[in-house]
Amino acid sequence: MSSYLDRIGAGLVLSQPEIFGFDYIPDELVGRNDDQKQLAGMFIGLGHKDGASRAVVTGPVGSGKTALVKRFCIDIVKHLSDKRNIRSVHVNCRNASTSSRAIQKIIQDLDPGHPDRGLGVSELLTSLRRMMSSDNSHLIVVLDEVDHLLRKSGDDLIYRLLRIDEDTARRGTLSLIMISQEQVLDLLENAVISRMGRTNHLRMKKYDEAGLFEIAMQRSDIGLVKGSFTEEIIKLASQAAAPSGDARQVIELIEGAAKRAEVSGRSQILPEDVQSTVVTLPSNVDSLDIEGLPVHCMLLLLGICRRLKRQEFVTSGEASKLYQVVCEEYNQSPKGHTTIWKHIKRMMQNQIIETRTDQLDDGRGRTQHISMPHMLPSDVSRRLETLIPARLRR
Ligand SMILES: Nc1ncnc2c1ncn2[C@@H]1O[C@H](COP(=O)(O)OP(=O)(O)OP(=O)(O)O)[C@@H](O)[C@H]1O
Ligand SMILES: [Mg+2]
Question: What letter does residue 24 receive in the DSSP assignment?
């Protein structure tokens, strides 16, 4: 009998694989004390019978926004359990990107048997209000990755959730937390912003190497066999993840390295396990500095991305025409060739695009072929379509 399956389940290195899953929320977050205090500060009112709060949490990919808010909801429900009946629902708006999908998800979470089919948003909101008042409870609604909802359905649902108690005798039915990587406030109308409160905004920073080290250490202590890793290994992984500042990346690296060690039949993770895992990491659109680009560079990149959705590469000549079309769309007068070329060079240096120089077929000279091997042009253009209007408004 072949023994090729022997190593599955041997548990040489990974003692609790689920610790490395994305759903896992540690009992204690590391290094986010100040952020936790700031968020708690926005929810001071929740201790009172009719209190309700609002918060917006923004920060780069993998900065721990979801983990922080999920931890907070679990903790606050427990903390206030003898004062108030609090419940929370977490909606990921990437999967529920329209108003009706999002409100359906909220209702389904609270009452899986609720007959919501065919009901409109208004009726569902009424059901929600009834549900909360029937057992006199308070609901914390978390809209995670809310930019997806805002782009598709606008902020109508948010506005209505914020007004849920208006024209009723009840107060303090619902608190709202919105989470997004982007400057989500740019997508909100003033009426919503003023209801959310401009100061209720927690901005999380990306992790530095030391922060990633602490997170990786915490996971490894819980999830790996004692003695299977050294501090050096954790350091190596945090160094590799430091440019992105993405906690998910460092966790993935440790998990990948642990699996490699196990597959090789070792009970110790070696540096090469980490290194071979590093090269498999996809470069992430959000770890690239797109927000820091000058606005005309963004316009140029948007033109390029739109074409790269359908084509493997664009020539520099095409890029400059595409740029002019985008400029027209945004009412901007296009810059000249020297500036375009400067932006192309900058994006090459930042590894946003790659270029290859080719002889033209007709022998008339050379041209640049621009491609985007590190990320999906559709992701980048979606991001630019939010960033550009915000930048032009400033
Ligand atoms: N301070 C921390 N302590 C322990 N684990 C953390 C901490 N911050 C993040 N993590 C872990 O890192 C991973 C990524 O964090 P999280 O999903 O919260 O990031 P995010 O900011 O929501 O990212 P995205 O913008 O992609 O949604 C998760 O597994 C999370 O549990
Ligand atoms: Mg998240």
Answer: -
